[in-house]
Specification:
The structure holds 2 protein chains of 2 kinds. Chain A has 9 helices and 11 strands. Chain A is of the alpha+beta class. Chain A has one domain. In chain A, the strands form 3 sheets. Chain A has a 5-stranded antiparallel beta sheet with strand order 1-11-3-9-8. In chain A, a hairpin with a 2-residue loop joins strand 6 and strand 7. Chain B is 46% helix and 17% strand. Chain B contains 42 helices and 35 strands. The longest helix of chain B is centred in the last third of the chain and has 40 residues. The chains are: A alpha+beta, B alpha+beta.
Chain lengths: 327, 1182
Amino acid sequence: MLSEGSDGAFGTSSAAAKKNSKQPKYSRFTQQELPAYKPILTPGLIVEIVDRYDKDCIPSTYNTSSDDMVTYIQSPKTNKTCIRTLTVPKKMKQPIFIYYQLDNFYQNHRRYVKNRSDKQLRSGKITDKELEENCLPEDKYGGEQIVPCGLIAWSLFNDTYGFTINNITIQVNKKGITWKSDKQYKFGSDVYPKNFQSGVIGGAKLNEKIPLSEQEDLIVWMRTAALPNFRKLYGKLEEDLDANQKITVVIQNNYNTYSFDGNKKLVLSTTSWIGGKNDFLGKAYLAVGGLCIVLAISFIILYVIRPRHIGDPSYLSWNENPAGNFT
Amino acid sequence: MVGGRRRRIQFSKLYSFSCLRPRFRDEHRQIGKKGYSRVVYCNDPENPAAVQLNYGGNYVSTTKYSAWNFIPKALFEQFRRVANMYFLVVACVSFSPLAPYSPISVLAPLMVVIGATMVKEAVEDWRRRKQDIEANNRKVKVFDSKSGSFTETRWKKLRVGDLVKVYKDQYFPADLLLLSSSYEDGICYVETMNLDGETNLKLKHALDVTAPLRDENSLQKLEAVIKCEDPNENLYSFVGTLCYNGQELPLSLQQILLRDSKLRNTDYIYGVVVFTGHDTKVMQNATDPPSKRSKIERRMDKIVYILFSVLILVSFVGSFFFGVATKKDVHRGKLRRWYLRPDDPTVFYDPKRASVAAFFHFLTGLLLYGYLIPISLYVSIEIVKVLQSIFINQDQEMYDEETDQPAHARTSNLNEELGQVDTILSDKTGTLTCNSMEFVKCTIAGVAYGRGMTEVERTLAMRKGIGDTSSDLLGSTADVTDSGKSVKGFNFRDERIMNGQWVNQPDSDFIQKFFRVLALCHTAIPDVDKESGEISYEAESPDEAAFVIAARELGFEFFERNQMSISLHELDHENGKNVDRSYKLLQVLEFSSARKRMSVILRNPENQLLLLCKGADSVMFERLSEKGRLFEAETKDHIKKYAEAGLRTLIVAYRVLSEEEYRQWEEEFTKAKTSVSEDRDELVDAAADKIERHLILLGATAVEDKLQKGVPECIDKLAKARTKIWVLTGDKMETAINIGYACSLLREEMKQIVITLDKPDMKALEKQGDKEAIDKASIISVREQISEGLDQVGSVKERSVLFALIIDGKSLAYALNKNLENSFLELATKCASVICCRSSPKQKALVTRLVKRRTGETTLAVGDGANDVGMLQEADIGVGISGVEGRQAVMASDYSISQFRFLERLLLVHGHWCYRRISMMICYFFYKNIAFGFTLFWYEAHASFSGQPAYNDWYMSFYNVFFTSLPVIALGVFDQDVSARLCLKHPMLYQEGVQNILFSWPRILGWMCNGLVSSMIIFFFTSNSSIPQAFRKDGQPVDYQVLGATMYTAVVWTVNCQMALSINYFTWIQHLFIWGSIAFWYAFLVIYGFLNPTVSTTAYQVLVEACAPSPFYWLVTLLVVISTLLPYFSYRAFQTRFRPMYHDIIQIRRLEGSESEISSELPVRMEGRILHLKERLSRREL
């Protein structure tokens, strides 16, 4: 565009020399080159791949009972790498958002929701009393404060995904998956993890060198979900995927959802102006609209069948009482 | 001096008053025993024996609280309300970790509610206190036996046994024993209006032995002891004895002057204090005014209880599931939801003690779902009702210029009850009528005089149409205007006999006799104004005053009465000069309800013995002599016409007695009068009966009990609104019926059912005096009459026939008996109007209670006098007429108006509106709180029932305060279904309230279901459409705070739009409040979102950063709002089209233009004319 623009500018300046040239003057308008938005009305604009892997990533030896699965996932010795192959159903344009979806995980449980200290996350400074009020039992380790304290941080999701197409690794962009306000105002840039996951280990560990405001996975996790089935952003793929491409995903299956019969899903999805893929809203609009039409029609039919003069007082129920000569 | 002349009158010698002489009765034997143990040492309060008795002082306090007990007592009163108690518990618990939200968000509204109510209590009590102070510090003269003179003291310092002197027109400071008065024979007149509402003067009479104690010396020597009954509330009895000079003398009520009554026509009295302060009869009678609550409020309480049960149920369900889920967290030593650390829990989440955790969760649940019970409902209703009352007070249409009185809502509790009145119980005198009698017409010697037109005639003329008003009996309206000066009590216009013209009439002789009777046959006392020489009269009844005034106006001026004679200024019709004639008064045969007549026997200046008599037609015609029946037929005819015109009639007759006859009779009569036997009264009556015979008819009088302005029209409108109207009056049956006609309560087309015990056979029984037999016969008679009435009502198939029930006081007493109550009420409720005549104040209250209890319908009592107080307090609503009589009725009433006719507007307009507003408001309140509260429940169900609210704390606490409160208050204060004019034009609209259509259970439950459905739509539509995918282009999924904000937005929109759908009346206020509330929510969210994240927590920048830029958020809001409103919208659309309510019809008609706002209804007679014209036209066309 820039080069074209300078072309045009040059063209006008040389126009003085070739005064009689019949070359039409350049303008974006005359040349019909106005910047334009070209909508392509294609159905299924959003492409979504959902892959539930919690069951399939358990080796067959542990696959017999849920107790076994819990043993497998809790054992530090077992190999938790799991390789899945996904097929892209339609062309997916970048950015492709990578989510992990947990089902039957109560991030909205009252004990869980409250078990954090925003003050600590922001400033790192917190009295022991406040800590006790907000973060029990994940408040201290060996008499020292845990940063970040509380159950939410402690249970941080720790599965990881690696993507390769035809053996070429695709970079996952893990930056910019948080809300700006969270990153800037709720998590301190000078607060570093301390004593985290030192006692009973819950979920992921944190790099103690990186301040909390840069720990985007933590920030995403700490913004609790509304309902027990939820997705959270894992990262973004910043290249287009073609239809029928096979993606190999290397999953480190660490997170324990087996003890509470939860599901883990990996989701790749594009978005549109309305967000991700959910048919409910559209269907609901159609249904309510349809209902309105049905009601309107039935109302008209009723009116045609049983018309009445609207100001007719004889429809009054208490008119049937005695003493008609009052009225 | 007037009093000087009066002093010479010794009424006791002249009158045959039986009551003046107390006799020992059975009760007197009780004295000294239990209940009759009071001992009063007269003039000796410092007597050691008196001091030992320690009767209380005369200090009176009517306040509810004192300075030191106000706070605890008022608080106690407040927390007796269940809802307040609940919120207190909630506030306490909210300080514990159980609370799902911060304690201040609960405590603040509670404190506001309770504080406001307590301030109101304090102000009311302060007013009472000021009145007490005023009464306690009034001055009275007390005899000081040391100095032997009277000194002034404050009322509160009076002691039992004190001797006091009370002057004319002063109130008695305590219950006194009358010792003596300015009259020699120790009589005095009292006005007991404050006690029983009767305006006539009552005569009290001191004992003969104490009557001479009239100077300070003799008083100083007074040594007497009163032994009497203990304090009690019975106003009409007193039992006691006076020990004086070694004599035991019986005392009766005749000697007792009650506190709060007033001394009249007597210069002063001396009395001994018997009961002080709270022991006085009037204070013993004072019951705390019952606190009245409207039906709607009582039903609202039921709804609150229902919601309470729902709340408990919901909490229980929640804690059950929570307990189960918590217990499962540790399963066979394995941790299930390990991220909740069930191995290291607090007590609230301990899987090992899951039942304890569940119990605590139950408490949390009670707090969380507290939104189902709207605390702000009580405050809002209170605010709304006060504002409504202001509108009632401000109504210009209910302002009376004459008395300069606007309507006044003295309580705001009952506004909506005004719209549900089913039965109106009205007093007659002073309420329907002005309580001023006017002499309007008379018939003398068969000729009718008087051209004035009565209210009834005017009404009847209005009804019949025009044309026939020119009948000579009724007189023409034109003559009324030509009157000269107007005289109170006199509205007689007839040029034939006025201004002395009667001498030219053919029957002038009769006319002279007629007016002489009026001027002489009475018990009134003249009061000559020294300066102007004008004479006014003090009479026992207003009728009598009207007669004396009439006689005066026609030239027979009664100007002096002394012990033995009555003097008149008279026109001598031979020489045309004014002469004074003095008549020697020999006997007075006084009026009684049994005799229904009164006579005087006197000797005229010509030394002729005359008996002058006036009485009811029912007893008079049978006493006429053969010769005296000359004009009987004409007179009867005239009386009938007068009665139809709503006038009270009395027959006037006389006879000449021969000396011999009189002497014989007098002997007999004196014997009867002086007899001491039990049947003395009967003997006196029998003796009187013997002389009142062979009378010569002179004519009849007709007195109008003037109706108040607009009464017939108002009653007509109220009847059209299908309210039942009962008139409870102390009047005679005939009078009551007349007034009934006058105020269009009775109409000619109505069938009357009369129940009375005034029958010959009953009278015969009464003469025998066997009380039991009378009772039995009375019950049988009343029962028969009631069942006859029921048969009559039942036999009529046509609906157009209306019945009116007229019952007298005696029968009423039996009809109110337990056995007959039901059938009486059955009959009464089937009649369009009911008149109870001859009923006592107590019966009025009893009837009111009966109607209220048995029918369960709302009753409204209207009255103006203190005798109506019982009725006003007993009825669901008491309306006092702030007219001429005292303020007692107004003080006891809930609403006061200055004219009966304002009742129409008060009920049909304000009542209807308030009913509608309050019922809509309450329904809506429950709707909005259920819609909100249940979203919390649905959410909690998806949060493992852990008690996590879906919204930020402050969203929740502001819900009832900012986002939804103002529109609902606007609804409660301003909403009108139809304009005031249309309300009055269509009185049938009032039935919506009477039948409680707008607050029926189906409607209430309908609104609740609507709320429930709304909450489901809000929660499930929002959550299903937003979970789990991204809701923005940048891939962010919906989290806890976004879902909360979105759902809350949907709630605010839904609830406010629902309001917009359901109100009928949009002014800029409604627009401002409804749309302003929604706008305020967004504004709040922006501002709150910009606060520090430690304050705003989950609301931090939620709108600006997350929701607003996402089209998804707006689309969901739109969808949810449309779908939540759809059920109500389609219901309303269907209902207004196909099953419209009355107000819908009126609204639509107005919209279509068939009811223009400007044109007013044609008067009935105009309509009649037009109809007539149309008929003629159509005939011509044929």
